[in-house]
């Protein structure tokens, strides 16, 4: 994403807006209001208008937003015109599920390689993605010009692998392990803690019941 000064919460919502605008554009719709967007993506209209305001004047009061123009703007903002190669490190149960995830719904994301230590898995092609041995990881990341790694390995191996990824030139890591990783500040790390997310959901459910 080109603009690094927008709030993180706004940045996380941009792909949601973009996907819905693509749906509208494919359906032939030309205009959409913030209220219509709000109902579709379940984000209040005031938040949508504030998110959009970080990028200047994207629509006109009383007219709404031009669907195609707004879609193209967010495509450019999200680098949808640029292919980003992604590596999956760890092809266990979660890793295999992620390989089957339909990343191709985004024209800009391609999982081009996977890596694992299990010799029963390496050398295979899973859902169109070749699985390489860990010893080949650094070389393949450089050859395939991979920018991002998804990490789904056991926590005790995570930091050592991250050190290798950084040395191979990885720019960002999506971390599904419970380990908190150390890397240079130039490396973007996004932590996805499924247990934490589930516990948070349970907390809010119980809070509602008490009310």
UniProtKB/TrEMBL annotation:
Keywords from the UniProt entry: Cytoplasm, DNA-binding, NAD, Repressor, Transcription, Transcription regulation
UniProt DNA-binding region: 16-55
Protein name per Swiss-Prot or TrEMBL: Redox-sensing transcriptional repressor Rex
Biological classification of the source: Bacteria, Bacillati, Bacillota, Bacilli, Lactobacillales
GO biological process: negative regulation of DNA-templated transcription; response to redox state
GO molecular function, one term: DNA-binding transcription factor activity
GO cellular component, one term: cytoplasm
Transmembrane segments: none
Gene: rex
InterPro entries registered for this protein in UniProt: CoA-bd, NAD(P)-bd_dom_sf, Rex_actinobacterial-type, Rex_bacilli-type, Rex_DNA-bd_C_dom, Tscrpt_rep_Rex, WH-like_DNA-bd_sf, WH_DNA-bd_sf
Family: Belongs to the transcriptional regulatory Rex family.
Pfam families: CoA_binding (PF02629), Put_DNA-bind_N (PF06971)
Subcellular localization, as worded in the UniProt entry: Cytoplasm
NCBIfam families: PRK05472.1-3, PRK05472.1-5, PRK05472.2-2, PRK05472.2-3, PRK05472.2-4, PRK05472.2-5
Ranges where the CoA-binding domain occurs: 79-180
SMART domains xref list: CoA_binding
